[in-house]
Amino acid sequence: MRKEERARDDSDVLLRSLCLPAFVAYRKEVASQAEKGGWSFDQYLHHLAELEVEERKRHKTERILKRSGLPTGKTLASLDPARLPVAIRRQLPVLCEGGFVERAENLLAFGLPGRGKTHLVCAIAQELVLRGYNVLFVPAFKLVQRLLSAKKELSLEKELRRLDAFDAVILDDIGYIQQDRDEMEVLFTFLAERYERRSVIITSNLVFSQWDKIFKDPMTTAAAVDRLVHHSVILELVGKSVRSEEAMKRNGETKDES
Asked: What class, spelled out in words, does domain 73-244 have in CATH?
């Protein structure tokens, strides 16, 4: 009996050295199932291999999700499809599959504040993560500050390479950048660097005709817009403000209680 226990312990050590943690965790349980079910050795091994693959996929998804910076709660499950225009409801399943990321296309969501732009793109991004895509969510002003800092340290190219590791970068609220010349230049550099190579997902309360407020210079504005729309999917969110409706609902419930 001691020899059997020692052999099992030795097997665990060998499996860990081969980086097969699911084999270690489940082999006894699966062995019991195999014995009761009369499985062949190949069936036993195949089932363990499937568990190993599933476990690795789960851990990879957790790592990508943690690295993404996506806000919690803004998922497909919590998205109210009734608030979305019919055209966007039809597009949503296809966008979640990630084909636009494979083609290095951009996803641009426009609408007034409170229309659910951020929730929509984050819900899509969550689905992309489940499919193994590397996604980064960052408010536009924070990305610009990050790029400005890298430029001052003469490491802008290095920072752009780091961002290149992400299949899609979400720039949330691009209309709220402080809009000085340095900010405009690093933002344009970022967009130009990803053009036709990696996807950019943008939310904005400013339509393209107002983007001169972001880039100031008309030529730079035209060049930036041209690169973004060349290969892109544009989503326009209309209707009432989600936040305003929720606030009115809360106020109504408070009045009822009093």
From this structure: alpha beta
